[in-house]
Amino acid sequence: MKGTLNINTEWLQTNGMGGFASGAVFGPPTRRYHGLLCASLNPPTERVILVSHLLETVQVGEQVLPLSTEHYLRHRPKSKVQVNSFKNTPYAQWQYKLNGAQVAKSVLMLKEENTTLVRYTNTGKQPLTLFIKPLLALRDFHHLRTGATSVEKSIEGNTVKVQSPEMPTVFLSASVARWQAREDWYHELYYDREANRGFNATEDNFLPAELDCTLAANESLILRLSTQAGVVTQKPFIEADKEHLLRLKSDPFLGDLETAAQQFIVHRESTSEPTILAGYPWFSDWGRDTLIALRDFQDFMTPGETQAVIRTFLHYQKDGLIPNRFPDNPDDAIEYNTADATLWLFVALWETQQKTPDVDFLRTVFADLTLILQAHIEGTHFNIGLQPNGLMSQGESPWQLTWMDAKIGDFTVTPREGLAVEINVLWYNALKIYQSFQVRLKDESFRVAEPLKLFEKSFVETFWRTDNLGLYDVISKDGIPDLAVRPNLVYALSLPFVLLSKSKQKIVLQQLREKLYTPFGLRTLSTDDNQFVPEYKGTPLQRDSAYHQGTIWPFLLRDYWVAYEKINGKRKTKLQLKSEIESLKHHFYFEAGVNSVSEIFDGLRPEHGKGTPQQAWSVAALYKMQKMLES
Q1: What is the tally of structural domains in the chain?
Q2: pTM, entire model
């Protein structure tokens, strides 16, 4: 696909453990999360930025030219670096032309290691000398370092070893032994993305040594940045190139989507099982995000791996609830404040069983599924429980339990206590899925016929709008329906088991199309609502106030197009989808996180991705849409 990279585009490489390397394609780091070595000490959490970035200059003859730039609080870069091309597959690769000199730079993170390789190759015809200064942050990835601290360093051959309090030892190795000791602190480095998000934006980095290396034409310098000692080699680059060639598909876009998706699949140390991170750079694995993405990510995983993800969340099941979120700090308690994540587990399990039936696995988890349903029927934490009419209610101040979970202190921006439409259609699907599994396992020890009968009698008469324009989003504990049009009603159409008549399905789809649909995702609130916020920007308070008040979420497109196909058939869906997928496809290649999909977009003018630049369920949605075009 032809296009030009946006000036704010970011790149990402991951290690399958929650660790990553990331940065701005053009220019210096712009986020606190940017770094060449973000190590995960307790995969996929306890992440620390060790190596922030490299100061790079090139000397050709008498000319000394910058390969990198810096941004400080009190002054911006004096010179700009010309990046002639960039691509992010199978690893991050830049091409520079500098007054006759040509340099190729590549960054690759090793799988299952907290190790990043950086390779520089002289692709020109005349020799050049590289000067490299590694800057180290040595901090938790959520925080910024201010002020110098005690750091010990030593140089042995081609390796600089750096030790600082409460951080792992950092090994900086090079393919040539040309390190020179030069201890220094660089103060007030400035990250403008942090400033734009209303956070502190300056920090201090440590320089332990510097390196110079003269390269003849076609020669390379390789740096190895790691938490463990090791051999410096370019073999991983060669292997990555070979693997990439083998994975090229007849549709390169599907291949690129698969590569993007696999970056979110990581190892969880606490269970020795795989899980799916919600997004880079700052999210861990969230119950609902992981299970929503798993429906499509199973295409890139073995059946055993998909089962392991489900097993991980069932392992932590507590009183009928699976975790909402695993904290970044392993000493913090696991959070269970969710009314939907547990029910999404049934849907994810159904989808994986549809692709790869496995009665033996079903049998191993069936008792957990039974306990979950029993807990919901009897009532569990956060006032999650079945009402006499068979509908599922939830909500307990100050908690917000649905995916629309923005809060400011104890103030909930989108209060949805009571009967939420997606919670109820998820509950209905959980019962139907469980009933189907019962038949397969010939296990009738716990009957769900009565809860199903009650639900089927109550849902439409409770949730169908009196003006016949579709479904209510939520009905308060006092029985007052909320007239706000929100995208949660899409699940009444897209989930495996649909209760609405065909005529009512068409009305709901029309409601979605007219009020919420954009090619970038569904709005979280219709533009004609007086609570609609057109732009996601500003301080944390301002952004949280906009998060679910009109902001567009790409992941919702997955279920929108599934619903569209159910109602209109494959042929009409393909014709409609073919042109409308192009906006998000262009975003995938050229905007925000290159070769990925952002978390959100502005509600009124969705021109640039916002939130996390790489979001798992956003990538999953785009992958599903492309697969639908090819089916």
Answers
A1: 2
A2: 0.96
